[in-house]
Amino acid sequence: MGDPVSEAKQIGRFLILGELGRGGMGVVYRGEDRLIGREVAVKTLNEVTPELRERFYLEARSGILSHPNIVTVYELGEQDGRPFIAMELVAGDSLEKMLRTRKRIPLLEGLSIVEQLCAGLGHAHNHGVVHRDVKPANVLVRPDGRVTIVDFGIARLADQTRQLTKTDALLGTFHYIAPERLKGEPSDGRADIWSVGVMLYEMLSGELPFKGKDVSSLYRVINERFVPLQEYVQSLPHGLEQVLERALAKELQHRYATAEEMAFDLQMIAESLKQDRVDALLQSARKLAEDREYANARAVLLQAQRIDPRNTDAKALVLEVQNSLNELQRGEQLRQLVEQAQTAQEAKRWEDAVLFLQQAQTLDTEGAFSIPMRLQNVEELRAQQQALVGLWEQANEARRRGDLPGAQWFLSEALRIDARSTDLRNAYSVVVREIRRKQEATKVEELLRGARESYTMRRYTEAIENLRTATEIDPSNPEVQELLFTASTKQRDERRQHLLDRLVLEIQESLDSEDFSLAEDRVTRALDKLPGEAALLRLQEELLNSRAEHERTETVRAAMLLSQDLFADDPIQAMEAIEAGLAKADGDPTLLQARERLQQHLVDAPVAPVSSGSSALKGEPDEADTEPLEMSNEAHDAGSYSAAKVVASPASISAQPSAKHGWFQRSSRIYFYAGGGLIIAAVLLVAGHVFHHKRPSMDAPQAVAQKAVSAPTPAKEPAAAVAPRFDLLLDASPWATVVDVRDAAGKSISLPSDQDVTPLRLAALAAGTYTVQLRGADNRQKTIQCAVSEARQPCTTDMGLLDIQQLLKGE
């Protein structure tokens, strides 16, 4: 539980300010008497018992004692059942603390303390009060050396024998208790004299007269003699050992009877010591005064006066030293004032400098420091300072108005007066920097404005140049940095896009020209420059697909060309060539359709001749029987092989039994022209497929075939299979309309009236070069040069994309 008194803010009428100390029996607080505003010490008990209460009140009785060396008790009272004492608050340290700090006390100081203790205790004894607990902790020494005795009765040793057997609290203080009290015998004020003798011994030697810290040490206190003080202190004054012998006598009849008696003996010893000490101090003070160390001399003399306040020689020397010190101090004060004036002048504190010099002028009565001349110089400098202040104020006002050039001029004029002024130079530099910053800000704004215009017009390089120049001027401008980042990003994106467009164009050109190796190299290098670019990845995928398609197309082309070469001599090998192509280009529609036509042809071609007994072949075929064959011949002679194939197809012939014999007789010829025409058409289709063209319906051949069916003509034998020597075979992929043919002289060559669509054969032409004008399915015209010679090379060209299926079907 906490102490209720300590938790209170007031005890009686005393306001508690804090705690001064705490012991086993009570607590001492710092308090304030609110009635008169005086600080006091308020002592309380921790535990209230009848015995402790009696002791507490006994201490309060010391209030009847009025002595300079006894603490003054102001009030005794109770609060919440706990007694308290309000007493004098003594400023100073306890003798216990002094001994811990200094170990030993100088002889005269120790004798003075003991004299005052004896005086206070003698007064108490004369009034019937015995302290009974005199020890260093209960002796306070003020800063001026005055001694105050405290704690009367609070540690009263009733029934000491019992106390020693029950607690160790006594072990720390038994050294100061008289033997008769330790033995439980009656005691009086001489017990306090024993305690004072122990303290005198301890102050002078730094040791207790009876050593030991356990209960067995009590034996020495009661029975043994103390160690002679001379073993610790050299040159003891005469009579001091005898004083200790009487004070520490075991038997009461040999001890001092009164404290005043002991004080008298000590006073006699002290007087002799004081005189010797004062004489030594006076000699030392005179030596210091001769050396003009007046302050030290005065300190020594004050010490002598404290020892012997009535010494006249000390008083006279103090007055002499003080006068010298005053004179010295006056000179020192004058020197200090001059130095302070100089320091103020260097710091441009002219008012202070004038004040110091004016004070020094009153002290420099001999004119040693030339104060008037110094004062005049400072006055002139002060006038300059005032002018500087005026210029400075004008500069500041101009700066506040934003007139930086004006502020610069005022500061430059001020620098003419005081060029060494650090403040002026700094202020001038600040204004110059502000002017420069303003100019730079204007320049940055111009550059930023130009950069914005360039950025708006997508001239990123020009914008970046302006922004970088602005950054060199103002690296921390956020707007410049933001726009620079944005413009740089746009420039980088634009350059990347330009690079991408160029790379895509190069790659597309390679793809268009089917240079896949170059395209692959360009795609690889492009992806190295622009990794992960979607357009390049798409082109890479397109490259793979185009290359695969190209290889497939080449496979188809090779198979078709080989099949064409083999068809006339060995249709079976032609079929095998188609099958080999399908093995590499599985599912290719061109090869599949070619195979289907070959298979159909192989089925249609080998029709067995009709028996000679057939009535349909015994006579000449009638006009209806021979009409399809004649129409096929006409189509073949006209160069319309598809029409010939349609008219001469097995289905047409089988539908007219009377024509079968003529068909089989001419089977080899029809086999070559009709079948060969089919394969040539397929090869042309392949070529059209390779170049990704589609061909519309072959209107002209279809018209010929329709005419052959709808308008029958008299049957006749087909023309010879060998073409004229100077024939010109015109062909276009997939097909074209022949618009005009002219020879080298520009003469127009007549075209067949019923046939102007490729393939077209022009017969009986003279050898030479002919200009042929063609029109494609999209009405786009093309002019080619064709040579006519004995070699009979066909003249071919590519016209563009058409429908392959339409051509294959002959529609």
What are the salient characteristics of this protein?
811 residues, Phosphorylase Kinase, domain 1, three-stranded antiparallel beta sheet, 57% helix, elongated, disordered C terminus, Kinase-like_dom_sf, EC 2.7.11.1, serine/threonine-protein kinase, nucleotide-binding, membrane
Q: Roughly what is the average pLDDT, rounded to an integer?
A: 77
SS element count, helices: 30
Using DSSP, what is the number of strands?
15
Strand content: 5-15%
**Sheet bearing the most strands, described?**
6 strands, antiparallel
**Shape, please?**
elongated
Helical content (DSSP H or I, runs of 4+):
55-70%
Radius of gyration: 71 Å
- The secondary structure category is alpha+beta
Low-confidence stretches: 154-169, 607-625, 631-723, 802-811
End-to-end gap: 122 Å
- Main sheet: which strands, in order across? 1-2-3-4-6-5
Task: Describe it.
It is a single chain. With 811 residues, the protein is an alpha+beta fold. Among the domains are: 1-89, Phosphorylase Kinase, domain 1 (2-Layer Sandwich), CATH 3.30.200.20; 605-809, no CATH class. A hairpin with a 4-residue loop joins strand 3 and strand 4 (38-45). Mean pLDDT is 77; it is low at 154-169, 607-625, 631-723 and 802-811.
